[in-house]
Amino acid sequence: MGKEQIVGIWKIAEDGPQKVRETHIKKEKLLEEQLEDWIVRDPTLLGEPLLVVGRQILFPDVKDRLDILALDLQGNAVIVELKRGKLKDPVDMQAMRYASYISRWRFEDFENQARNFYGKVGDPDFSFNDMYESFCEQAGVDEIPDLNQDQRLIIVGSSVREKLGSVALWLRDHRVDVTVIQMQAFKDGDSIFLQPEVIVPVKVSKFAGTGGAGDGDSRPWVTDGRLWHLDKRCSQKTKSMLLQLDEIIQANFDVDGLHWNQKHFVSYRIAIYNWLTVRTSSSTLRLSFLVRARSFKAEDLATTLGVEEFDKEMPLSKKLGLPSSVFVMSMTENTARVVIRVKEDFDLASEAFLKFMKEAHKAFPK
């Protein structure tokens, strides 16, 4: 992990800079529960938008208690584990246990937990759908993601030990999304200042590329987009589906691609425009075809392809439960996009799907 360097916080007084005294959460009697309160009030203290849906969640069968449960903008369950004092080795195992419990939760479990947490039991006007959709929309997310497709860990403490940092880095190398945040406290008179610092993942220096290649690329999808999408964004199932789709397209269509160098999607082009983009994820491939306006109707495609018609106004609980689905989205007066959300139930090799793709290819706006 390297030698720890603490720059600290400085107060500019009339007689010059004065270093604010570093303190410790335990020393100042800032108990774990108080830090928990602060994070619940404003989760961006952890460096990102989060929707808190519960705290001190008891798992009766195993007598474990989770500090904070939240959801992020990708629909992942976020397990936040807080520790007063130094972070010790067992913390990572504890957080992983919690993640394994939450991984089996359904939409209804999150809904019930949020209802209890926000004190809305018996309130007929409470809608977890609306709450989560509003959280995503306020952050500028256009498409509401599926819920709990993956779980993340955030471990927070006042000092990180070498062993924990090493374990966290190893977990990240093996596709377990864990973040370790060191919470430094400073005191000036009666005021307490908190300085969160992300220790894992290790920060990439903004000067890393200056004067040489550096130790790595902060945009791995540019360095090796194929590896990024197939091994980092896809599950084994969606990886197989994407490779199968590529084989079908290469065998039947004259397009430019496959292009891998975007963070969230891969693409096939006609001339300089994306004809088909495929948004990769662990549970779904989102296929988006650029076509002439009014070339297709969603209800007809749903029947032809044997999928559900996706309604963007549908409640979140129903959206998440849909199998493969389709909708048509108007772009301009002359263009539209046919969007097919492909899940495990979809037959990519079917004659109906190949026929549709050929029609979509002919319908590309020129």
Q: How would the blueprint of this fold be written?
A:
Blueprint: E1 10-13, E2 16-19, E3 21-23, H1 32-41, E4 51-59, E5 64-71, E6 77-82, E7 86-87, H2 90-102, H3 107-117, H4 128-138, E8 151-157, E9 159-160, H5 162-173, E10 178-188, E11 191-200, H6 220-223, H7 225-233, H8 236-252, E12 256-259, E13 265-270, E14 273-279, E15 285-292, H9 298-305, E16 308-309, H10 316-321, E17 325-330, E18 335-342, H11 351-362
Parallel strand pairs: 6-8, 7-9, 8-10, 16-17
Antiparallel strand pairs: 1-2, 3-10, 4-5, 5-6, 10-11, 12-13, 13-14, 14-15, 15-18, 17-18
Structure overview:
- This protein is an alpha+beta fold and 366 residues long.
- It folds into two domains: 191 residues, Trna Endonuclease, Chain: A, domain 1, CATH 3.40.1350; 141 residues, Aspartate Aminotransferase, domain 1 (Alpha-Beta Complex).
- 31% of the residues lie in helices and 29% in strands.
- The protein contains eleven helices and 18 strands.
- The strands form four sheets. Strands 3, 4, 5, 6, 8, 10 and 11 form a seven-stranded mixed beta sheet that branches. Strands 12-13-14-15-18-17-16 form a seven-stranded mixed beta sheet, with helices on one face.
- The longest helix is centred in the middle third of the chain and has 17 residues.
- The chain is elongated.
- It starts with 9 loop residues before the first strand and ends with a helix.
What's a concise summary of this model?
The chain is an alpha+beta fold and 366 residues long.
